[in-house]
Design a protein that fits this description.
The complex is a heterodimer of chains A (134) and B (172). Chain A is α+β, with helices and mostly antiparallel strands. Chain A has a domain of 93 residues. Helix content of chain A is 39%, strand content 22%. Chain A is built from three helices and six strands; from the N terminus they run ααβαβββββ. In chain A, strand 5 and strand 6 form a beta hairpin. By secondary structure, chain B is an alpha+beta fold. Chain B has two domains: 34 residues; 131 residues, no CATH class. Chain B is built from six helices and six strands, in the order ααββααββαββα. In chain B, the strands form two sheets. Chain B has a four-stranded antiparallel β-sheet with strand order 4-3-6-5. In chain B, strands 1-2 form a two-stranded antiparallel sheet. In chain B, a hairpin with a 2-residue loop joins strand 1 and strand 2. In chain B, 22% of the residues are buried. The chains are: A alpha+beta (134), B alpha+beta (172). At the A-B interface, helix 1 and helix 2 of A face helix 1 and helix 2 of B.
Chain lengths: 134, 172
């Protein structure tokens, strides 16, 4: 079969479509892997635990949880429920059937709440005080 | 352009190559993202820093570490966790304590151990002596040392060894 100038065969189109589909699937896979719930929970729980470990009484920290908020919004979990600090464990839970915890050693009181100030949506505020209240 | 015999076969090869490349990328991405972030070394660093700041901060020795005569107090050793605001308690009684801290006070003149104490899980200490490649399954150790000058002008070398276990949380 002879191809004329400018003629595109159905086979060429199928070939291109399959190539584009292949690339699209690969890119989708890579993006999904990088923003996996488990990975985000793991990194946030460790980050917050390390921040608590290095905190001193009287400190106030604002932690950016925007990426976690995107995931929790998708899974329908309230932003105010994604972080839990209890019994020297930080737990980040972005959906009902997931969650990661990490232990911290600093014996300090931690208060935390989602920041509602304009420009800080998606942030959590952590405040630290001595355990005995001094 | 003329389509030759076997051209379709080339496109099959092309897709075979694509599949091989895809499998390679998937394996590489999985091995990268499948690993947890290993923060144990940073954690051990923070732990030793916290202990150091507790013992000696801003040129001042912890007020409960020495008696007015400059003698080390035994009750500092006994209440070290409370005095330095540390809490190693874990949720389950079957979970081993994931930390160890050892503190040694050596005399400046002859490097003799004058006073020492430790808290946490002693079993991790042996991990610090093993120096092998691919030792991510072992606990992470950080050693720190500094000089401490007391109010009675005595100088001690303080050595702190902090260890963090937590292998399951930080490796695959």
């Amino acid at each position: 079969m002879e191809k004329k100038r400018g003629e595109i065969l159905v086979e060429d189109i199928i070939f291109m479509v399959l190539n584009i589909a292949f690339l699209a699937i690969l890119v989708f896979f890579l993006i999904n892997q990088g923003s996996g719930t488990s990975l985000i929970e793991d990194s946030y729980s460790k980050q917050v635990a390390l921040l608590i470990d290095s905190a001193k009484p009287g400190m106030i920290m604002k932690v950016n949880f925007e990426k976690a908020r995107e995931v929790s919004d998708e899974s329908g979990r309230a932003f105010s429920d994604i972080l839990l600090v209890k019994d020297n464990y930080v737990t980040v839970k972005l959906s009902e059937d997931s969650g990661k915890s990490y232990h911290f050693f600093n014996d300090i009181n931690v208060s935390y709440y989602p920041d509602l100030n304009p420009g800080f949506e998606g942030f959590y505020t952590l405040t630290f005080s001595r355990k005995n209240g001094i | 352009m003329v389509y030759k015999k076997g051209e379709k076969l080339i496109s099959v090869y092309w897709f075979t190559i694509l599949v091989i490349v895809a499998v390679g990328i998937v394996l590489m991405v999985n091995s990268y993202y499948g690993n947890s972030y290993d923060v144990r070394e940073v954690e051990a660093e923070i732990l030793s820093e916290k202990v150091a700041n507790c013992i000696y901060f801003g040129g001042k020795v912890h007020p409960l570490l020495l008696t007015p005569q400059g003698v080390f107090r035994e009750d500092f050793r006994d209440n070290f966790m409370e005095r330095c605001s540390l809490n190693f308690d874990v949720q389950s009684e079957f979970t081993p304590i994931p930390y160890y801290v050892g503190v040694q006070f050596l005399t400046f003149e002859d490097s003799r151990t004058f006073f020492k104490f430790s808290v946490g899980n002693n079993n991790y200490k042996s991990d610090c002596e093993i120096k092998l490649g691919g030792s991510e399954k072992l606990a992470k150790c950080v050693e720190k040392e500094f000089y401490m000058k007391t109010s009675s002008e005595k100088i001690y070398l303080v050595k702190i060894l902090s260890i963090v276990g937590k292998t399951n949380e930080n490796t695959n």
